[in-house]
Write a structure and sequence with these properties.
The structure is a homotetramer. By secondary structure, chain A is α+β, with helices and mostly antiparallel strands. The first copy, chain A, is globular, with a radius of gyration of 21 Å. In chain A, α5 links the parallel β7 (140-142) and β8 (161-165). Chain A has helices spanning 19-29, 66-76, 102-106, 121-134, 151-156, 177-184, 219-242; strands spanning 6-14, 34-41, 47-55, 80-84, 93-95, 111-113, 140-142, 161-165, 188-195, 205-212, 246-249, 252-255. The A-C interface holds A 40, 42-43, 168-172, 183-188, 190, 204-210, 214-216, 218, 249, 251-255 and C 40, 42-43, 168-172, 183-188, 190, 204-210, 214-216, 218, 249, 251-255.
């Protein structure tokens, strides 16, 4: 089963009549075969959200010119659009501890340590941002990065930093959510992957899931059971993002899966 | 939050370039505002499947003429299409036992008893079919109807008879699935709603879900836990069907939810 | 599969050596066959929690004398214990609206209306309590009873009032949790059944579950999807309570299922 | 929260009166504090199944003498019992391909390759068994080991070989379960961890779970979504086994979690 190369267009604009018709007409006129289109109108914001994927094989516009050729239509419709292709590579790993240095290195991935203390936090984050920029990083994944990012960092990658929080947000915001869950005596624990904003654990949610627990589970059991869950929920969110399946819309996301 | 009246079009046809463009252009030319469109190409059959929903308010074609005005395009594209509006009413209840007669009657719903034995089965089913036809029934729901429908019945309502089977199909086909599940020692039990075909428990699946069980659960416990699950899974399937969200495609369904 | 009559003992006392031995010895000496025993020590409170169920057939102590005969051991071990038999009947329905009067009456269940306004709340609750007492009610189930119970009511039935809250507590405490969930853009919605305490939505949790939603779901869709979930979660909690499977322990519950 | 050393006893014997009393009395007489005991009577086989865990601190029998001192009681009650302590180490990895040799070696775990063809299978499995015996292996985990074990191998480690099958057994037994699931059009896919017996995919089930899929998912998507699920379900099964929480009982398991 060979995969055909495809292009994906993510569109967000004020709703108006004829949007689907104009976008699909544009692709049809250029001999593009749509293999999947999905759209939605957000009732709160009145925004039209669309994801359309078509075959590049036979498409009359060369890959590198698609954005430019689509621009006039996008401007007329006041669209914000993004297009791209799959998938990603892990370019580098940043940590504020050297402990796990050997793991990424075993897989040939550069590892950078930026120890962070309250006093040097802003300064270190500036260095991290410089490193990310230099490496043309598109997506930052916070995997058990137990520091709250400063506002400048969050603003530098809007909807491009994915965090995993080990609770069913908005329950148990902040630190030690498994301890909070244990204290409250819940019967399920959750994990939430979301884009990072300046406000702690408050960004648009991409994916959530839960696992059942019981009174027999200690905090350590919750941590162990949650660990598997966190991995799966984070992996799903990264996969959705890389597949251009997440369209942020205000405080929320539309997921075209 | 007042609901605007909407129309829904379900389309299934051989895939070809420009389908989305032509269908959305048709709606746009008639001043129809698409509020949700979703399509999919089935890799096995090469069929293009689409569900599109638009506002009737301001649409230039009167409701009763939509089918006729869409027909030329449908014919040209070799489409099978269906359109309609929500939702349904419960017109009547058929049973082969009189036991629960009082329940539908409490809610003012006519109740008909057709006792079925191996000898009179075909004959009774013919009478049932006549009753359904006379009442212009669109959808038949088998809720714990513990008889296997004859082939003529199944053929009379293709993709319009929904059954609930109390297992995670295709595991535990046939009778006494909870006993089968108990004997096998599974850790989850399931329920499956599907369209009825001539082959037992083999029709296109609409919805499935599961509930966790343990070694402590007796067959009676499985039956009790499964009962809630069956209701929920059947209700979801009926809701999807009535919302024109189920597009059968060969042995399978596409669910546009 | 005929059911043997069984007795159930729920025990809660300070942990000390030999508790399981002494309790099981007591039953063994009286020819009781344990068919299920389960215990747990709560790490926070140091309480020993146990549920033991044994066959009454052949047990040497007559049913009505069990409590008295067990009392000396219970006193010595500083136990709080409860014993009883399954299951319950619905004795009466109380509402503050007359709208659904016909439904319980169809099933022959007495229906009482106590209209509640801010001014008469305390007074009406006193009348409700008198009615409950007169009918020897053991368990009160709040099914969509959209009033916050006053502290006197909550105190009158400690761990014997079960509420269903339509969110994954502690997320979305208070009113309109589905609207809160919609606004936050969560990907799962939940339901929580819990014992009622004087503090709103804060009592010991008995059971929770979730259902997946998407950006396409309106608040009305959340309400519909949640409705099925609420029923199932509430039914499970009531079943657990009636089966003497819930052992409250401070702010939490141990569930012996 | 420091962990106290504990001992665990797993018991399986014909049901008879006084079992819990005698076992707990034995522990009490030796000053053992039970922190968790759970038992169950299997209705089909009439077997009494019990897991009891107690603190070693203050227990009067030295750790290495526990089995011998418990033996007379076990013999009298016709018990099969096992006791032990947590947790395990990964001693070695066996594969029939050299491809992933570098991964275990990165973590310092010996890697052995036994290429298997239909002609040499029995012979190679004998060598594998010899290697396992030499290393005093207690538990064999088949993680994507795509060979059916021969009957001699399965017999050598009864209830000590855990396999992960990538379907919701007993649905989709045998090869290519994801392809089977795709062909059937199911709405959920599953994974099942079970002990290996001589009959393919038929051994006692330890743990199962599922993940939701849709018509949009290709076979490749099922494989990707299932991969995370398989890992989690296998990890849970191994954790349950190592914690002496799995008590096999005929074709089934009791899970004391």
């Amino acid at each position: 089963m060979a995969m055909q190369p495809t292009a994906i267009l993510l569109v967000s604009c004020p709703d108006q009549k004829g949007l689907v018709a104009q976008i699909s007409e544009f692709l049809f006129q250029n001999n593009g075969n749509i293999i999947h289109a999905d759209n939605h109108i957000d009732a709160e914001t009145g925004l039209f959200l669309m994801r359309v994927e078509w075959e590049l094989d036979g498409f009359r516009i060369p890959r590198e010119e698609i954005a430019a050729r689509f621009a006039p239509l996008a401007e007329r419709l006041k669209m914000q659009s993004a297009s791209g292709e799959l998938p990603g590579n892990i370019s580098l790993v940043i940590s504020n501890h050297a402990d796990l240095q050997s793991v990424p290195e075993r897989f040939g991935i550069p590892f950078h340590v930026f120890p962070i203390h309250p006093e040097n936090k802003r300064e270190q984050e500036q260095k991290e941002l410089a490193l990310l920029e230099k490496n043309h990083i598109d997506l930052v994944v916070l995997a058990r990065y137990m520091q709250v990012l400063g506002p400048e960092f969050a603003r530098a990658y809007p909807n491009r930093i994915i965090n995993i929080h080990h609770s069913f947000l908005p329950a148990f915001i902040g630190s030690r959510p498994y301890h909070q869950a244990y204290d409250r005596g819940v019967k399920l624990i959750g994990a939430t992957s979301h884009y990072v904003t300046e406000q702690l654990d408050d960004g648009p949610i991409i994916e959530q899931d839960i696992v059942r627990i019981s009174h027999r589970d200690s905090v350590d059991d919750l941590i162990r059971k949650g660990r598997d869950l966190e991995r799966v929920v984070l992996a799903r969110a990264v996969h959705l993002h890389l597949g251009f399946r997440v369209l942020p819309c205000g405080r929320k996301t539309a997921i075209f899966d």
